[in-house]
Amino acid sequence: xxxxxxxxYENIIKSTDSCEDAIKVxxxxxxxxxxxxxxxxxxxxxxxxxxxxxxxxxxxKRVDISDIDETDKKLYDAIFISSYSGTNYGVEYSLNNNLIxxxxxxxxxxxxxxxxxxxxxxxxxxxxxxxxxxxxxxxxKYYLGDExxxxxxxxxxxxxxxxxxxxxxxxxxNIFYSDKAIATSTFMxxxxxxxNIVAPLMHKLYSYCHGRHTFNRNHDKKAILIGYNGSDLxxxxxxxxxxxxxxxxxxxxxxxxxxINDFYLTIQAxxxxxxxxxxxxxxxxxIKYDKIAAKRLFNFKGSV
Length: 304
Hints:
Rossmann fold; five-stranded parallel β-sheet
């Protein structure tokens, strides 16, 4: 696990140094776009929706694979799919429509789509750390252009590698977020579940004010607030945490630009999750799982 994390910056640099082909395709995206992904690629998909919306001036919508058939596709021009391998059934299912298809993937041989290719060293890990952060970095470079390297260095210089909250013995952790940090919150939720560390209970910031606070009436849970910006609502929530939560941690925003900040917070979350996992003797690259269920579910093909 540590090997992948310690090489994260190096892998990002290697991949973004050779992403000209990807950027050429990204520039062509226009119209109304559906952004799709699952697992670690859902994080990339959520991040892509923000980048494409702001950089290309498109209207975007984040959807899961199971939402595609329920979406009125006449309202959209293209579908943007994120997938490291480009070979899973989710990709095949997402291509089964008349929209223009863009796929951000390391698989240059993918057919029936406009491939947005990138190169990345193979990651033999259950939890996708590099294969989540590297394609996000490709999108960030597209968004930032010539400023990318200096801002990337600033991002990594601000990351607290020792950030930690003790979740040993906890069955649930409250996670507070907004769409300003949607990629980070998706990454946190997905990793905590897939690594079987703790069940994350996700709260949109304002929604917590309307009834959801009753879940913590016994003052026996812990909390993580993602992307603190100093808003009045966040300050009220933190004052509430001081007596309602037995422990909490705040991941502060460091950049005014939401896209840069969401990438920064995702990198910060990598180290937080690494430290939580280490404290519980969990290796994120070698997760124990139900092999029968994994074979049946991961290889699923059929109607969704």
